[in-house]
Amino acid sequence: MSVINQVLNQLDQRGAPPVPEQAMVRAVPPRRRSLTAPLLALALALATGAAVRQWSQTYNPDAPAQSVVSHRAAAVAPVPSVPVPALAPAALPPELSSPVSRLSVELAVPPPVVPSEVKDAKDMKGTKDRIMPSLAAATQPAKEQGRAMPLAPASVPAPAQTEVGELPMKRISPAQLADMEFRKAAALMQQGRVADAISGYETALQLDAGYQAARQALVALLLEGKRNADAERVLHDGLMARPEQTGFAMLLARLQVERGALDQAVATLEKSLPQAGSQGDYHAFLGALLQRQGHHDEAIGHYRIALQQVPGNGIWQMGYGISLQAAQRGAEAKEAFGRALESGMLTPELQAFVQQKLKEL
Fold it and tell me: Which residues, 6 or more positions from 191, have their beta carbon under 8 angstroms from its beta carbon?
């Protein structure tokens, strides 16, 4: 190794040319910078921006999370028709056994109304399959009252925003709740659970005091159970809520007459008189009660209004003649009695009574 070092030193000292290999050693020019990495970074940034923009358009942070809730649609059974028992006339004391005294009691029941078809429920042991005329006249069918028996969907305002995971509560109106209670009570009645049905009808009326079908059914059950005082209370409350229900006023007056409260009955009918208008049976009933009180002039006026509606009603013609005779208007009374006989509506007993009156004239 020392020999080689000496030779190299000598060459350096002499300025000898470099070795050929050394001559080929030269500086490498600076390397050109590649654009691949920046282009990749730019493409990645653009892709990221597009993804963020798409996500912002489809995502709504205010929308509440939707929960899957299974609803069981309860089938609504049709409301069974509640038969309304007929109110049997009370036994009259001996002093009221004559045709004249009995006239107001007989007129207390309006002409029978042909009932609608009532489904025969064999398991209803306590209620008779008859319609009380005056109670049936107090209310109209649900279709005429504007109240369809099936639950009608009510317009419910849009619920306010709720927290995520909660569902908005649907509001039910008192009228809809009253319908539900009425249906439950009707079903209980079909099962023979009269006490529970009465409670259900009362609940329906607490929710909707103007629900006439519930009030009619409740009065029918109370009368069937001989609870006349409670029936009077329900009828009175019904008149307070719906004064135009003149049928309820007539039935209430009928119950008052049967317990001997003649003055109360007249007051009841006179209070609802503005709503009765020219209703014939209403005026004839009031005329009969005024006749029993001895107010014949007033009775004549009410009988005249009634006969303008139904001129051929023989019972009303007979009552009209009785008051005319009591007011010393014999010629008019004779004509009224004659029309009563010609009507063909009088029973043999009443025909004999009218013929006797004609002989007196």
Answer: 123
Residue 42 has pLDDT above 50, yes or no: yes
- Structural domains counted in the chain: 2
Q: Is the pLDDT of residue 357 over 70?
A: yes
Which SS3 state, helix, strand or coil, does residue 90 take?
coil
pLDDT of residue 331: 94
Tell me: do 309 and 220 sit in the same domain: no
pLDDT in tens, 144-161: 444 434 444 444 445 555
- Residue 317 has φ and ψ, to the nearest 5°, of -65, -40
- Position 252, amino acid: L
185 and 309 belong to one structural domain: no
Of 78-82, 206-210, 319-323, the range with the lowest mean pLDDT is 78-82
Where in the sequence is the domain holding 94, given as residue range(s)? Answer: 78-113+123-144+172-261
DSSP string, 13-51: HHTPPPPHHHHT--PPPPPPPPSHHHHHHHHHHHHHHHH
Q: Which pTM does this prediction carry?
A: 0.57
| Residue whose structure tokens are 């649900």 | 142
Domain membership of residue 36 (yes or no) is no
121, 127, 228 from 118: Cα distances, Å: 9, 13, 24
Indicate if 295 and 218 belong to the same structural domain: no
Residue 25: inside a domain, yes or no? no
**Whether residues 134 and 234 fall in one domain:** yes
Q: How far is residue 193 from each of residues 190, 198, 202, 298, measured CA to CA in Å? A: 8, 9, 14, 47
